[in-house]
Write a structure and sequence with these properties.
By secondary structure, this protein is mostly beta strands. It has one domain: Porin (Beta Barrel). Helices cover 7% and strands 48% of the residues. The protein is globular and about 65 Å long.
Amino acid sequence: MIKKKTLLLVIALAAVSGAGYAQEESNVAVYGRLNVGMVNYAGYGDGRGTVTQQNNLASRLGFRGQEYLGNGLRAIFVIETGFSPDTGAGALGSRETTVGLQGDFGKVRFGYMLNALDDLHAIAGPGYQTNVTNDNLNGFWANGYGNTFTGSTSSNPGSDGCKQVAGNAGNTNSFAFDNRYGNSIRYDSPSINGVNVATHLSLGEVAGCNPFAWSTKLQYQQNDVNIALAYNLHHNLRGQGLNDHIVMLAAGYNINPQAYIGAYYQTLQYDNPGRSNLKQNGFGLVGRVYFGPGRVELGWYHAGKGQGNQTPVFSGIYVGDGTQANLFVLGYRYALSKRVDLWSQVAQLRNGSNSAYDIGGARNAGSPGTLAHNPRAITVGIKYDF
């Protein structure tokens, strides 16, 4: 009830703000998305059967606004709430929630927002129709792995990290390099001859832990070419003195107005004092063909075998021979209008003999029962943007 009252208050304030400051070239817009599908999961081995569930991807309600301050300078803000239409769950400001300034110098924002590496997702990442493939829990893109690690809190800093720097307190996804960072500041440059840069710093708020997460990218985007290089550093997120890294290169090319191809390559490294550092490489390829209101997408994503040592277990990477995995995706989208899409998707994951990756939306990567199995998901859904 409190959340509902808070949301109604925000809507009312947005309406009042938009009306009261119109004469000062200020405006507030309400926007959102409802994206719901039915998913059938199978392929978990003899006796495990199948399961069908309603799934949600990135449904949201947001408010964004700006006010012109003169001399080309604008104040900007966004408050975006993610929610699940299938369950009603959601928290105010749980997605992009920032305030900042924008001008000829570029854009500076403060708050809770996606890092710079996430910008590469649109170039070569899995399609956004459903979290069966887009969900970072499957471990293929930027090792988005959620486990039972709870991290430290302001009342109990301990020595096991300050992971709320990569999300709200209690977040269980601190190993994901493609993430929303709290307590952050991000700068995006203007595009100069197609070149732009972005850098994003997130600071921890737990005394004695001093963690931070840093993400930066260099991108060239002009005409039919889109190339970007990103680097992320997690310092002390897993514990004192531990530095984890990712380097990702992504490239995309519009072959013609009806065809697109993209690819990425990533290399990961996690500190493991006294033992060999944990390392993994991965890549992905995606192709899209457009015809009228329809779009077909075909993707192949590969997680290489882990190298080094992972004792104790601290990520979703599997180490040794037979730990590679491949994810194959076939998707179709049909636009009923500019705002409404019908979509379907088939995802087939092929684990190695010693890997246990899983499909997003089902359970966390590395969950019991997926070792050497080949999970499959078939999904149909509808997306409405407003």
